[in-house]
Specification:
The chain has 18 helices and 2 strands. With 409 residues, it is an all-alpha fold. It has a two-stranded antiparallel ribbon with strand order 1-2. α4 packs across α12 and α14 packs across α17. It is globular, with a radius of gyration of 25 Å.
Length: 409
C-alpha cells in the first residue's frame, strides 16, 4: 500500500513492491559496506598487554619479563597482520604512504621537544667527529631509516630530569626504524610469502643465525643494527602477514603445539648459555630473541580466537585497552622520559628522614614509582596524543577510551 497525495490509500502494484524491496536490500548492502570493519579484540588485548609490559620492563629491568611475554615480537606480528590486510584492499603505494603518515608526525613532535632540549643542553655538530655527518644524521629524526642521533652524556635539569634523559629519548627509536623498514619492504615480502610461505617466514631466523655465528660480516654499525633487527623480528612480522593470508590455518592443528615449544626451548637454552640476567637479556641476544619470539608469536596466533566482542570477564577492561591501542605510539615514545623524570623526583625523597629510617623500601623499590610513571605517561597522552589523530586524519581527541563523543579537543 502507498499513500495518495490527498491522503487516500492506494494499492501499489506487486511489481513496484518487488522493486521497492530490491532497492531496500541494495541500500542495506551499501550501509553494511559503509560500516567500518569490526576490530579483533584478541589482537587489541595482545597489543595492550605488550605495551604495558614494555613500560613495566623499562622501569623494573627484570631479564625474565621479555621471556614471559615477548612484547616487541608480538607488536611486530600485529603490525604485519594489519599491513597484509591493508595490502589486500588497497594499492601498495597508498598503504605505505598511509603508514608513514601515521608513524612520522608523533616522531616529529618528540624530536621537536627532545632535540630542542638537547641543543639547549650543549649538544652540537662536534658530537660525531665531523659537523657534516651530524647535520646529515639529524635527517633521521625526519625519516628514521637509521637510528636518529641523540645527545648522550648531556647534563640533566637539576632536581627534575636526570642526566640520562637524552638517552631515554633516543634509544627506544630503534623500533620505529625497524617498523619503517618492514613497512617499506612489506609489498615485496607479501609477494614472497604467497610464492613460498615457509621459506619466507623462516628466512629472518636464518639471517639471525648467520649474523650470530659469523657466516658473514656487515660493514658499519647502522647496517648491522638494521639487519640484526630484521633477523630478530622479521619472522614475527611475516607470521602476522601469514596469519592474515591464511597460511597458518592450512597447517594441521597439531603442528604448532608440537613445534613451537621445541623452538622456544632451543631459544631459551641459548639465552641461558649466553648468561641471561638483568642488564643482559633477550634484547642483547638477537638469535635467541628470534627463536623465542617466533615460537611465542606462532602459539599466540595459533590460538587466535578472533573476538569481535569482548568475553564477559574482559568487558570491564574495554576502556583502558581501547585507550592503550589508540595511543600506542605516544605511550611508546614518551614513557621512557616519564620514567627518568619519576626516578629523578623520587631521589628527593631521600631528604625525608622518616622515610629513610622507617620506610626505606619506598626509596629503593621501583614498585611505588609505577603509578607515578603511568600518571605522568597519561599526562603525555593528553598533551601529545592528539598528534596521532591528526596523522590518521581524525578529529583530535584528548582521551580516546572508546566512549562515543567523549573528550574531544
Amino acid at each position: 500500500m502507498s499513500t495518495h497525495p490527498f491522503g487516500l490509500p492506494t494499492r501499489t502494484p506487486p511489481e513496484a513492491d518487488r522493486g521497492t524491496e530490491a532497492s531496500r536490500k541494495v541500500e542495506e548492502g551499501r550501509e553494511v559496506q559503509r560500516k567500518p570493519a569490526s576490530r579483533d579484540r584478541y589482537f587489541d588485548l595482545l597489543r595492550a598487554v605488550a605495551l604495558f609490559r614494555v613500560v613495566f620492563y623499562h622501569l623494573m629491568g627484570w631479564a625474565w619479563l621479555p621471556v614471559v611475554f615477548p612484547s616487541m615480537g608480538v607488536m611486530f606480528a600485529l603490525a604485519g597482520n594489519l599491513m597484509a590486510r591493508s595490502l589486500r584492499r588497497r594499492p601498495a603505494i597508498d598503504v605505505v604512504r598511509g603508514r608513514l603518515r601515521r608513524l612520522l608526525p608523533p616522531l616529529w613532535l618528540l624530536g621537536a621537544v627532545g632535540v630542542t632540549g638537547m641543543l639547549l643542553g650543549g649538544w652540537g655538530p662536534d658530537e660525531e667527529g665531523h659537523p657534516v655527518w651530524w647535520w646529515l644524521h639529524l635527517a633521521f629524526w625526519i625519516l628514521p631509516l637509521s637510528d636518529p642521533p641523540y645527545g648522550e652524556g648531556l647534563p640533566g635539569v637539576q632536581g627534575l630530569i636526570g642526566a640520562d634523559w637524552a638517552v631515554a629519548v633516543g634509544v627506544p627509536l630503534w623500533y620505529l626504524r625497524a617498523y619503517l623498514w618492514f613497512v617499506l619492504l612489506s609489498p615485496l615480502l607479501l609477494r614472497a610469502l604467497r610464492a613460498a610461505p615457509w621459506p619466507t617466514v623462516l628466512s629472518p631466523v636464518a639471517l639471525s643465525a648467520a649474523l650470530e655465528f659469523g657466516a658473514f660480516t656487515v660493514p658499519g654499525w647502522r647496517l648491522e643494527a638494521a639487519l640484526s633487527d630484521v633477523g630478530a623480528f622479521g619472522a614475527c612480522w611475516l607470521l602476522g602477514m601469514a596469519h592474515q593470508e591464511g597460511v597458518l590455518r592450512r597447517l594441521p592443528r597439531y603442528v604448532v603445539p608440537s613445534l613451537a615449544p621445541v623452538v622456544a626451548c632451543i631459544g631459551l637454552w641459548y639465552a641461558v648459555a649466553q648468561d641471561l640476567r638483568e642488564g643482559h637479556d633477550l634484547d642483547d641476544m638477537p638469535f635467541a630473541q628470534s627463536l623465542w619470539s617466533f615460537a611465542a608469536v606462532l602459539l599466540l596466533l595459533h590460538l587466535s580466537p578472533a573476538w569481535r566482542e569482548w568475553p564477559r570477564r574482559l568487558r570491564r577492561w574495554d576502556r583502558p585497552i581501547t585507550l592503550l591501542n589508540s595511543r600506542a605510539v605516544t605511550i611508546y615514545l614518551w614513557h621512557n622520559v616519564c620514567i627518568v623524570v619519576v626516578e629523578s623526583l623520587w631521589d628527593h625523597l631521600w631528604s625525608i628522614g622518616l622515610l629513610e629510617t622507617d620506610a626505606h623500601w619506598i626509596l629503593v623499590s621501583p614498585w611505588p614509582q609505577l603509578p607515578a610513571v603511568w600518571l605522568l605517561t597519561a599526562g603525555c597522552v593528553v598533551c601529545f596524543g592528539w598528534v596521532e589523530d591528526l596523522a590518521a586524519g581524525r578529529r583530535p581527541r584528548i582521551w580516546p577510551d572508546g566512549r562515543p563523543g567523549a573528550h574531544r579537543a
